[in-house]
Amino acid sequence: MSVLTDDTSLTDLAASLVPGRFDNPALMRRRRRAEIRFQLYGLAAIAIGLAFLVILFTSIIGNGWTAFFQTSIKLPITFDAQEIDPDGNRSASALAQANYQKLAYTALHKVLGVDPSNRLQRNAANALLSRETDSQLRQMVTADPSLIGQTKSVWVLASGNVDAFEKGRIDRALPQANRQISDQQIAWIDKLTGDGVMQKLFNTGLFTNTASSQPETAGLAVALLGSFYIMLIVMLLSVPLGVAAAIYLEEFAPKNRFTDLIEVNINNLAAVPSIVFGLLGLAVFINFAGLPRSASLVGGLVLTLRTLPTVIIATRASITAVPPSIREAALGVGASKVQTIFHHVLPLSLPGIITGTILGLIQALGETAPLLMIGMVAFVVDIPKSPIDPATALPVQIYMWATEAERGFVEKTAGATIVLLAIIAVMNIVAMILRRRYERKW
Q: In total, how many domains does the chain have?
C-alpha cells in the first residue's frame, strides 16, 4: 500500500488503492457519458412536463377567452304602455306578466325590414335574439317604470347560435343544411354588423348571472358566492382547529401509542380520496344532523374535514423547523411553556402556517366530488343570501356546464375554468408574498 506524502494527490492515492479505476480513459469516458445522459433525461422530463402544461393552458384559454365577450344587438325598444300595462295602474303583477319578448321582436323586425305577414321570415328573424331577452327587459321596467311609453335603445343579447357564428364557431362556408344559421340569417347578421348595431361586448353576465338553460345568459354568480361562503367556513374552522391540534401534538402531547395512532391517522386522512369525505358529510351532516342539501354550510363543513390534515401537517412542520435554541432562550429567561410557544415559537412558524393554510384552501377550492355527494349540483337560479341557502361552487359549475349538450356551454366551461385558475393563481401569489415577507432563515 502506498504511503500518503505532501506531494501525493488524492486522485493518485485513490488510483493506488483501486488500480485501474482512475487511470482508465475508456472508463472515464463512459462515466461522463452516463452523467450527460442522466442530465438529458432530466431536461427531457422537464420539457415534456412543460409541453403538456402549455398544451393544457393553450386549450383552456383558446376555448375560453371568448366566454368573456357576448354578442349583443342594439335595438330601439318601444315600451308600449298598451302591451305592458294596459290598465295603467303600474302594478307589480302587470309589469311582471307583460310580453316583453314581443317588444324586442317588433323592434328587430323594423330594423331588418321583415314582412310581418311572412311567418317563416318572422321566425328566422326572431331566432337571432336570445329567449332571455324577455327577462332582461322585464328587469329594466321593474327597476324603472318610467320607461313605459318611451322608446329607448337597448343592447339585448343575441341567441347562442348567432354568438357562436360571430365567434367563428359556425363556418359560413358550410352548406346551409349543415349549419344552424340560414343564409337569410347570415345576411341579416352582416347587415347588423355593418350598421354597428351588432357587437361583441364584455360579458359581465358571466359573473352576475345565475344558472340558465341558455348558454348566452348562464353565469357564475351563484357559484362564486357559494365558493366564497365555503372558503369562509373552511378558513374559520380549519385554521384554529388545525393550528391548535398541531400545537398540542407537537408541544404538549405525551409520546405514547395513543398519540402515535393519532399521528398515523392524520397522515392517512391527508391521502384519503375526497369522495369519502363527501360520503361522511352526507351521512353525518345531512342524514343525521338534518342540515339542508346543497347548502354552502354543509360544503364548508365537509371541506373543513378535508383540509384539516393538510393544515395540521403543515403547522407541525413549521413548528418543528423553529430551532430549539429559541425555546431554550425563552425558558432560560423565565418564560413559561405557554408563553414560549405563543410569544416565540408560533410567531416564528407563522410563514409556514400561512402557506399551509392557503394551500389547504386552494385544495378545498378545487374539490368537486365531496360537493357532488352532498347535492351541490342542483340547478340554482336564486343568489344565496346566507350559507344555508341552496348554492353551488365553481368546480361543480364547471362540471355541470361540461355535461351540457349546447355548443355555447363549451366556451362557458373553459371560461369558468379560467376564472377558477385565476383565483388559485392569486391565492398562490399571496402565499408566496406572505411567506417571503415573514420568512426567517436560520
A: 3
